[in-house]
Structures are given as C-alpha cells and as structure tokens.
Design brief:
It is a single chain. This protein is mainly alpha-helical. Helices cover 45% and strands 10% of the residues. The chain contains six helices and three strands. The protein has a three-stranded mixed sheet. Helix 5 crosses helix 6. It is globular and about 45 Å long. It comes from Sphingomonas olei. This is Metallopeptidase family protein.
Length: 140
C-alpha cells in the first residue's frame, strides 16, 4: 500500500506498521495546540503486538486484547525533581488494532484515532468523557 491509509481499506495487504504510525501522527498533528504543546517528549511506538511483560502487568493473557497502552506518569503527577526516567511512551499494537477493525467494522482511521486519543488521554489524566471530547475535536 503506498502513501497512508484511507478511512476503510480495500481487500489486499493489511495496513503496515508505517501506515498506522502515519495515521496516528496525523491525529497528533490535529490535536488542539494546548495539547500538542504538552506532549513534550512522549514517544509514539507502533509495534506488531504487546510483549508478555506488558500483558502480564495489565492482567491480560492474549496480545489481541490490547490495542494500545501508555507507559509513563500523567502530566499532573510529574515533578520538576523527576530525572533519569525513561521518556513517556504511547504504544499502538497493529495486530490487535487490525483484529478489532475486522470484528467491529469501525473505519480503520477512526479506530486508530480512538486508540491514539485514548492513550494520549492517559498522559493527560483525562476522564473518558474528556477523551471523547478530544476525539471529536480531531475528527476530520
């Protein structure tokens, strides 16, 4: 597949890691400026599936149960005295996203946006209602 993703892919090769990352970065680019400014050094990683350590830490048994996860401390819990910590990370998991896409029929771009916003919401310590409002703000 060349370029990125349309909203709902046609049969053929499933979207690549790079295509999902491209879409997630587009979602981040559409965030309101106040949110983008406070993402700081958060790293976006798109991987095939969650590793066993991540699954175990969340009490999950199968990698298709996890579409994304935020590793870090929410902005409101950070301190000026924090140092030496790994950068906050947002992980998106391609295989679980594709499985959910097939199960639900939700547009793939909407699903990637939803997962991306949800993990960004954890970075900011947002409620589910606030995450939905932010998701609406970045809709095409």
């Amino acid at each position: 597949m060349a370029g990125g993703m349309s909203g709902q892919e046609l049969p053929g090769e499933p979207p690549s890691l790079a295509a999902i990352e491209h879409h997630a970065l587009g979602v981040i680019d559409r965030l309101p400026p106040a949110f983008r400014a406070h993402l700081g050094d958060v790293v976006l990683l798109v991987e095939e599936e969650a590793d066993e350590e991540t699954l175990a830490s969340l009490g999950l048994e199968h990698p298709l149960e996890l579409t994304g996860v935020y590793h870090g401390r929410p902005v409101g819990e950070k301190s000026a005295f924090d140092s030496g910590a790994a950068p906050d990370r947002i992980h998106l998991y391609r295989q679980a996203i594709l499985a959910e896409w097939c199960e639900t029929g939700v547009r793939l771009d909407d699903l990637v946006a939803h997962v991306t916003i949800h993990e960004i919401g954890h970075h900011f310590g947002l409620s589910d209602d606030d995450m939905h409002a932010l998701e609406d703000a970045v809709s095409d």
